[in-house]
Amino acid sequence: MSQTADIISLFEHFVMPTYGRSLTIVRGKGSKCWDADGKEYLDFGGGVAVNILGHSHPAIVRALKQQAATLIHCSNLYYTEPQALLAKKLVELAGADGKCFFCNSGAEANEALYKLARKFGHDEGRFEIITMEGSFHGRTLAGIAATGQEKVKKGFEPMMPGFKHVQFNNLDAVRAAVGPQTAAILVEPVQGESGIRPATPEFLRGLRQLCDERNLLLMFDEVQCGNGRTGKFFGFQSIAPDAAPDALSMAKGIGGGFPIGAIWTRAVRKVKTADGEKPLCDILGPGTHASTFGGTPLACAVALAVIRTVEEKNLMAKAVARSKRLKRGLKALRAKFPCIKEVRGLGLMLGIELDREVKDVVAQCAAAGLLVIPAGTHTFRFVPPLTISNADADAALAILEKVLGQS
Ligand SMILES: *Cc1c(COP(=O)(O)O)cnc(C)c1O
C-alpha cells in the first residue's frame, strides 16, 4: 500500500469523520507544501488563513526551539514573561489601552467575548448579543448559537438562548433589533466562512455610534480577518479605524500555525459594578474565567516571534502590494471567464464568487497544484501567507486560468 492509502485507512478506522478531507500533506516550506506522493502545491489556503508566515518559517522554528528548551508550559497561577510581552504588543496594536485574555482557538476567544458581554450587562438584566446573518463564530454550543448560518445549528438544537441575527451591513436592521435585554453587538469586519464579505465603513461607524448611544459593547470577531491579513493588523483598521470596538477576538494567524487565541478589551470604557466603576478590561476578575492552556509560554513566544516578523519584514505593506497584483489578475480572469461573478475582499483575504458551486474548481485547482478553500457554496478564497512573492501570485493566477479554461 502507498503511504497515502495507509494514512487514509488509519483515518477511516480511528478518526471521527467530522471533516471532508482530500490530500495527505506531509511537509511544507514557505508558500509550498507536498503530499505523501511528493506532489508539490502552492498553498493559497494557508491552513484556513492560519500560516501567515508560510510553512515552517525560520522565525517560528527558532522561537519554538528556544522556548521549548526553556519553559513549555506553566499554569496561570504564575506569571510568565512571554504572556506579558505578547499582551503588551497586542494592546499596542489594538488601540493603546486595555488588556488581553489568552486561550487556544477562535471559538474559545469568542466564548470569552460572550462572557464579557454577559458580565457587562448582568446587573441590568441584559444578556442578548446581536450578530449578523452569514457570520461564523466557531463550533462550540455558544459559537453555533452566535453564528448566523442555519447549517451549523442543524441537529444540535435547542440553541443556547441570547443571540439574535440581523442582516449584515444593514444598520437600520441592527438599530431595530436592539431591545432592553441587548448587551452587545458582534460582527466580523470581513465575513470569512460565508464568502469573504467586507463590512462597509459606514456600517462599522454606525455600529460604533449605536453602541455609544445605547450603552452596548461593540465586539469584533477578528479571528480570520485580523493578524495583518488586510494590510493593517486588525481588519477594522483597514475599513474604519475610527470605529474601534470595545473588545475583539483573535486566533487563526496569530500563532502562525501554533494554536493560540486571545481577546483584547478596552480600559477607557468604564462599567458600573457593585464595587464601583471599573474599566471594562477588569470586569472578568479572578474565578470568573480561565483556561488551563491559555497563554502558555510556548504559544506566546511563538506569537510574539510571528508578530515581530510581520513588522520587521513589512509584511502588511507587502500583503497590500500582492493583493493589488492578485486583484488585477483576477479581474482580468473575470473579463475572460464569465463564470466568475465577483472578486471581493481586502488584502490577502480574497473571495472569488462563481456562477456555480465551487467544489469542482477547488478540486481541479488542487489537481493542478494550487490549494484554495471554499467560503460558502459559490465562493472560494485566497488566504495565502503574507510572505508570498509576486511569482507565487502569478503562478496561482496561471493555474486558475488553466483550470477555468478547461472547465
Ligand atoms: C475560524 C473562525 C472561528 C473559529 O475558530 P476556531 O479556532 O476554529 O475555533 C471563529 N470566527 C471566525 C471569524 C473564524 O474565521
Overview features:
39% helix, four-stranded mixed beta sheet, alpha/beta, Aspartate Aminotransferase, domain 1, Aspartate Aminotransferase, domain 2, binds pyridoxal-5'-phosphate, 14 helices, 407 residues, globular
Task: Give me a quick take on this structure.
The chain has helices at residues 3-14, 46-49, 58-68, 81-94, 106-121, 141-146, 150-153, 171-177, 201-214, 235-239, 297-312, 315-336, 359-367, 390-406; strands at residues 25-29, 32-35, 40-43, 99-103, 128-132, 163-166, 182-187, 190-191, 197-198, 217-221, 247-250, 261-265, 270-273, 276-279, 340-346, 349-354, 370-371, 373-374, 379-382.
List the helices and strands and how they pair.
Elements: H1 3-14, E1 25-29, E2 32-35, E3 40-43, H2 46-49, H3 58-68, H4 81-94, E4 99-103, H5 106-121, E5 128-132, H6 141-146, H7 150-153, E6 163-166, H8 171-177, E7 182-187, E8 190-191, E9 197-198, H9 201-214, E10 217-221, H10 235-239, E11 247-250, E12 261-265, E13 270-273, E14 276-279, H11 297-312, H12 315-336, E15 340-346, E16 349-354, H13 359-367, E17 370-371, E18 373-374, E19 379-382, H14 390-406
Parallel strand pairs: 3-17, 5-6, 5-7, 7-10, 10-11
Antiparallel strand pairs: 1-2, 2-3, 4-12, 8-9, 11-12, 13-14, 15-16, 16-19, 18-19
Q: What can you tell me about this protein's structure?
A:
- By secondary structure, this protein is α/β, with parallel strands linked by helices.
- The chain has 2 domains: 3-56 and 314-406, Aspartate Aminotransferase, domain 1; 62-312, Type I PLP-dependent aspartate aminotransferase-like (Major domain) (Aspartate Aminotransferase, domain 2, 3-Layer(aba) Sandwich).
- It is built from 14 helices and 19 strands.
- It has helices spanning 3-14, 46-49, 58-68, 81-94, 106-121, 141-146, 150-153, 171-177, 201-214, 235-239, 297-312, 315-336, 359-367, 390-406; strands at 25-29, 32-35, 40-43, 99-103, 128-132, 163-166, 182-187, 190-191, 197-198, 217-221, 247-250, 261-265, 270-273, 276-279, 340-346, 349-354, 370-371, 373-374, 379-382.
- Residues 105-107, 110, 136-138, 188, 192-193, 221, 223-224, 251-252 line the site of pyridoxal-5'-phosphate (PLP).
